[in-house]
């Protein structure tokens, strides 16, 4: 029964993430780019919180499958188009745009974690949640939403192409080093596959640390 509740709450959290989490993540990229001078995303209808504008069937489906499998959340939305040549501050501007998405995941996780942290810190509130099926289910789903955001934040910040962390890294390095590293972008998906198959525990360890900090555990 507990397993079924956890699985169902994870799927509900995935549904909420597809409707809210991914749109906010991609909107953050688009908004940052727009503020830095690039209107490409706006012209293509991506400066919006409409989930249909950002939905990627493969990335969304993989997020649902990872929720069913348990342990490691991975997924993505439709990438936000950005023309780096239109951005202020050059490569630094590109790094800011790339960082905006994962930062939005951290903010979403922190906001939802606040009431959860208050409940966990208050024995009376914790007991009330534990003895009320509806409240307990909402609590589990909210916890899964926090977990998904943290996992995807860490995953996206990995300095591997085509993830956001790669563009952040290139934007922070000097021009010559950045140009040299771009030659290895073709191997990005191989590295992501290796991380997915063998690095889940490493990412999970970092994610657990961040989640514990957010929830005050």
- Please describe the biggest sheet, giving its number of strands, its sense, and whether it closes into a barrel: none
Mean pLDDT: 90
Assembly type of the shown chains? single chain
Q: Structural class, from helix and strand content?
A: mainly alpha
Distance between the termini: 25 Å
- Helix-strand string: HHHHHHHHHHH
Low-confidence stretches: none
- How large is the count of helical segments? 11
How many whole angstroms does the radius of gyration measure?
A: 18 Å
Number of strands: 0
Which percent range fits the helix content?
A: over 70%
Strand content: under 5%
Shape: globular
Concise overview:
The chain is mainly alpha-helical and about 220 residues long.
Spell out the blueprint of helices and strands.
Layout: H1 2-35, H2 40-43, H3 51-54, H4 57-69, H5 91-121, H6 123-130, H7 133-156, H8 164-172, H9 175-182, H10 188-198, H11 200-215
Helix pairs in contact: 1-4, 1-5, 1-7, 5-6, 5-7, 5-8, 7-11
What this model shows, in words?
The protein has 217 residues and is mainly alpha-helical. Helix content is 75%, strand content 0%. The longest helix is centred in the N-terminal third of the chain and has 34 residues, at 2-35. The protein is globular.
Structural descriptors:
11 helices, 217 residues, globular, mainly alpha
């Amino acid at each position: 029964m507990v397993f079924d509740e956890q699985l169902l709450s994870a799927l509900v959290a995935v549904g909420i993430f597809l409707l809210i989490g991914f749109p906010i993540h991609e909107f953050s990229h688009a908004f940052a780019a727009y503020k830095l001078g690039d209107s490409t995303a706006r012209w293509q209808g991506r400066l919006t919180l409409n989930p249909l504008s950002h939905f990627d069937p493969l990335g969304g489906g993989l997020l649902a499958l990872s929720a069913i499998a348990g342990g490691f959340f991975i997924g993505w939305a439709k990438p936000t188009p950005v023309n780096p040549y239109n951005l202020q501050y050059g490569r630094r501007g590109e790094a800011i745009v790339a960082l905006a998405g994962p930062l939005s995941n951290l903010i979403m996780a922190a906001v939802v974690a606040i009431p959860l942290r208050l409940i966990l810190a208050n024995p009376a509130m914790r007991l009330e949640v534990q003895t009320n099926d509806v409240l307990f289910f909402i609590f589990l789903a909210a916890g899964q939403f926090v977990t998904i955001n943290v996992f995807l934040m860490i995953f996206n910040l990995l300095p591997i192409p085509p993830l956001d962390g790669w563009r952040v890294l290139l934007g922070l390095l000097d021009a010559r080093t950045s140009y040299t590293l771009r030659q290895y972008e073709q191997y990005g998906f191989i590295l992501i596959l290796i991380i997915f198959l063998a690095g889940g525990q490493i990412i999970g360890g970092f994610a657990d640390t961040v989640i514990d900090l957010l929830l005050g555990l």
